[in-house]
Amino acid sequence: MMQLASGSVMVPPLVDRGTGDIWFATHTLLGVAAAGAVTLLWITVLAISHGEEKLPNALCPWFSAQRRAAVAHDLVCLVRRLRARRLPRSVDTTRALAPALHGLGLLAVTSVVATGALGWYAGLQPLLAIHAALVTLLWIYLCGHTGFALLHEVAGDGRLGHMFLFLPWRRVQKSGGNGR
Domain segments of the chain: what residues? Predict the structure, then answer.
């Protein structure tokens, strides 16, 4: 979020490797942190198993016929609810569609970070044009992701409470559980 915000207001240098403004300096420094965070996230994703499935398979289902079929099934359930003029429930998409969309977001973030880092720090200037185009895709993803999270909240799924532990409306299990 900080990268997208600082990138929206920064003034890049007019000459190659100039200083730019304070927002550009902030953006480049935060870019190093973003590259580290994305690298750690990928290491975590590659290491986590969920039941019998590996997390990368859920995030990138495009190489498995079974996973693609599960995404298609989730889409059909989602379209049926929308045709019935009912808001989608998270249960309709958590099996395969939501992880696949999160995987697309992770790939978008990775692409933005990689093109920015390689374009600026490795001197591969043509990548900076690609970086700018990918930022637009990332904004679209972020707005869509936020919109669907709010839609799930309106539908009564309480997804925001599960994403942000500090929110006052976080759901707590009736059995006195830990809120999950």
Answer: 2-163
User: Which amino acid does the sequence have at 42?
Assistant: W
Distance separating alpha carbons of residues 101 and 79, to the nearest angstrom? 16
- Strands (E) across the chain are located at 49-50, 53-54
Length of the chain: 180
Which pTM value belongs to this model?
A: 0.78
Residues 39-95 have pLDDT tens digits of: 999 998 888 766 556 778 888 898 889 999 999 998 898 888 889 988 777 776 778
Closest CA to 100 of 80, 75, 128: 75
Reference 24, options 9, 5, 10; nearest CA is: 10
Instruction: Read off φ and ψ for residue 54, nearest 5 degrees.
Output: -85, 145
